[in-house]
Q: What sequence folds into this?
């Protein structure tokens, strides 16, 4: 057997060479237990082809691990787990704020309230993009994609295990997750090792750049038969995927892209997948499910965050308030010029949706689809970015990183010396009970009330230090900020499209009038002046 | 008594001088019957001050009218009603299409299916603007406003009888609809004749320019007490208003601006107003009611059209399908730079909303609110137009006038050789019944289904002659039109913002691919090539 040195938050691998399994290559008995002091973690190993058996483990602690392997292989050992990569620069810890930008060596991303953070507590602000068939392209194209990503603002990529069949997705991949039986159907007991090795190399390449892999386990756009596997076949597939992939620190599970279009699956199937993943992923990676029309029930215990296909950024607040979990618009239409209206918003609109979402403390995922002769559209295959939104998204990310943490919804009246809440309620005092408005207000369901009376406010804050309000497509010539009285602020007017920042106050506090240029895409930022 | 010569579709007035009424100046017995052949119309006269009594009548026919007046005045006579102004140029009828542009002398505007037309059948496409307190401004400003309107595309103005108190509406009008009692409250039995004469001069000035007056009878923005009149006082007010104003051909009744914010009024009050107006307006002018939050029930028999405050142009189809009456977005936010988000959309967005609405066969009303030192904002007081949308609205109007009639919703698949209708229904054939999409589709209410599955298609047609599709904020680089096979079309690509039209085909038919510039604000027009 071989061993790589063990390091906190990096995948550790044990390997043995033996004869190949007699039956299924998937469902093999191979278990390992890793102990760190009293803490025990049990993981499954997998057959990697050519007589090689592997166990992968993701250590979360510094110090001595003792391990024992049973099943096809019987072995035991111990090793010292070194401090995470993020703590090794100049022998000192990098400040958390700074290493968040770096992105590596912090462990898996976890949910923290309405936001995310790395396991070690470092900050992680998801700024995603979509390259569904990334892993099914030829090597030169993948290398080009990675080169593009190295200069882009994105730190999460959504992509599929199964290949995609759709407009602009016609190429046949070199390898598939399984080998075929003689009758042409898939043999889920015989994984295609070349596929999985290649797929893992993509995860690793992204990880090295600090990019999370939001891995899509199922999707409906299929001409090969993967969307029609039986539940028994699906269980084997997921089992093998978890054995191989779950020790990567940077993976997330997106049960499906457009789960509701998977016509052979009913709701119990999705619930079963949830339970299966919870049982077979020893690390509890992030888990959600993305819809076409019917949002998944994000209140379910194992679902870590809301993963939405939704264009109306004004609904983010409702999802945040309903589920009290982080909200990612994993699809809010793509920048491009396709015939389809999911794929032809302007660069301005893509950037606008990002600004609207992030200013509220929600998150977005980018995608790009420009018609081209070579049929290489970023959203499907990667390549180069042609759009105008990534630069604006990078500009947004840069500004958000100046805060000391993630933004929460800012009630604009909080420091107004007035009570916040519904002016409608005040207005209704003493109103005739059969007045249409009173009638409506008293009889409507809460969500209906919210959707009628909500105003489009894209405003977030981090404590009393950082207040950001974005005006979206509206064009005020003036705004009034109600800031805390006891702190001195620098106020900037930001043009998200021109990517300019203009300081208009240094030393503002309390109620402050800010003149604005009266155009679309303007934000105001008030940041505490640091000594 | 005096008489003006009688002309079809013009207000005719009879006048007598006597002593002033003993009691109420409003509720006087003065009735007239006008007979044209067998057709009888009964109207009420009014006291006009200084001992003058008047009867106004709007004749709809050419030929001899015989009239008889009873009550305070007893009189009778006959006169010949000449042909309408619109039919007098060069002694010949002007073609209907052409005279619609002229706008005068066609009689009141009526509803015709999902659209409007003049009583004589000439075309009328409402292109409205909003100047709430138009009639409460000083003369020079009103003259400036009328001069502005003479060069603007608008042929309907929404304005109030009662003055308005609101941001940027602080000036005290010279006259009010009534005189005050000694205790300062309004004496609805004593109309202020200067007010009404002045108000009528505004209606007349607009009418001379072919502009309809969408007169707002009630509204909540009040510091003088008009919104708090009792129902008995309201009845007297409406009675007097109908006696004076209903014979103007160009008036529409908007029962209220934001009726649901009239906190002293319940729903029965609005129903009573409806009935009262139906009884006291002998000409059945257009009637609707405009909301802040809760749309009025436009299915009510006397309500002629949907008058909406609504920003989401994608809901127009639902209102059209639900009520099968013309739909006007009388408020879809205003071009400007106010703090309030009802008053700070860009010129692009205002024009965009117009294009979205008209392309579907619905209608919009413009408004403009730019901050200015003199507090003269168009939407309140008139003056000059500063925005960028009116030119684009004029450009749209010009294009629409090239059709031979109003547009109806265009089912884009109609000539595709496929059946139209929901692709979702096809997709669901053979799908598991407990699939989330199938579940949702089979259990959701029809309106919920529409709102989930509707696509944003702004497309309208007039017969097989004229097909217009607008792409709104989407940026397709290509579109496919399915046109009838048996007609030859000229196809243009229109940039609504740049106001350019580029012919891309001459002689197209059937399925036609059209390349587009891939930016916001683009439309495609296919018009039959006329011999």
A:
């Amino acid at each position: 057997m071989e061993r790589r040195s063990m390091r906190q938050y990096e995948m550790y691998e044990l390997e043995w060479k033996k004869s190949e399994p007699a039956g299924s290559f998937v469902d093999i008995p191979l278990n390992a237990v890793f102990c760190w002091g009293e803490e025990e973690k049990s993981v499954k190993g997998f057959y990697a082809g050519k007589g090689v058996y592997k166990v992968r483990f993701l250590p979360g602690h510094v110090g001595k691990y003792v391990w024992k392997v049973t099943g096809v292989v019987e072995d035991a050992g111990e090793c010292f787990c070194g401090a995470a990569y993020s703590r090794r620069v100049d022998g000192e810890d990098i400040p958390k704020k700074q290493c968040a930008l770096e992105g590596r060596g912090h462990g898996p991303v976890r949910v923290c309230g309405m936001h995310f953070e790395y396991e070690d507590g470092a900050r992680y602000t998801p700024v995603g993009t979509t390259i569904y068939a990334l892993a099914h392209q030829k090597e030169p194209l993948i290398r080009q994609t990675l080169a593009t990503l190295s200069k882009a603002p994105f730190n999460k990529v959504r992509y599929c295990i199964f290949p995609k069949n759709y407009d602009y997705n016609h190429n046949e991949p070199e390898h598939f997750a399984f080998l075929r039986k003689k009758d042409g159907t898939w043999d889920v007991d015989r994984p295609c090792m070349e596929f999985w090795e290649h797929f893992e190399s993509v995860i690793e390449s992204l990880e090295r750049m600090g990019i999370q892999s939001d891995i899509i386990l199922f999707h409906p756009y299929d001409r090969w038969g993967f969307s029609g596997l039986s539940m028994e076949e699906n269980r084997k597939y997921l089992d093998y995927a978890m054995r191989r992939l779950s020790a990567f620190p940077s993976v997330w599970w997106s049960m499906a892209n457009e789960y509701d279009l998977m016509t052979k699956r009913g709701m119990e199937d999705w619930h079963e997948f949830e339970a299966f993943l919870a049982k077979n992923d020893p690390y509890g990676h992030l888990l959600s499910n993305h819809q076409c029309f019917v949002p998944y029930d994000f209140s379910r215990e194992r679902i870590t965050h809301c993963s939405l296909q939704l264009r109306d950024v004004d609904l983010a607040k409702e999802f945040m308030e309903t589920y009290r979990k982080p909200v990612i618009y994993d699809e809010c239409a793509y920048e491009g010029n396709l015939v389809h209206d999911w794929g032809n918003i302007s660069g301005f609109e893509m950037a606008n949706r990002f600004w609207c979402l992030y200013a509220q403390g929600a998150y977005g995922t980018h995608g790009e689809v420009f018609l081209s002769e070579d049929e290489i559209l970023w959203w499907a295959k990667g390549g180069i970015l042609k759009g105008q939104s990534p630069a604006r998204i990078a500009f947004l990310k840069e500004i958000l990183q100046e805060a000391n943490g993630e933004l929460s919804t800012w009630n604009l009246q909080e420091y107004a010396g007035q009570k916040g809440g519904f002016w409608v309620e005040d207005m209704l005092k003493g109103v005739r009970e059969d007045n249409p408005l009173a009638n409506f207000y008293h009889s409507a369901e809460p969500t209906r009330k919210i959707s009628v009376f909500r105003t489009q406010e894209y405003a977030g804050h981090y404590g009393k230090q950082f207040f950001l309000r974005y005006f979206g497509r509206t064009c005020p010539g003036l705004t009034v900020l109600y800031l805390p009285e006891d702190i001195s602020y620098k106020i900037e007017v930001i043009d998200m499209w021109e990517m300019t920042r203009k300081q208009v106050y240094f030393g503002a506090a309390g109620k402050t009038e800010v003149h604005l240029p009266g155009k679309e895409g303007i934000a105001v930022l008030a940041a505490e002046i640091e000594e």
Q: What stands out?
A: Chain A has four domains: 2-83, 126-400, 419-454, 457-531. The CA atoms of residues 343 and 467 of chain A lie 32 Å apart.
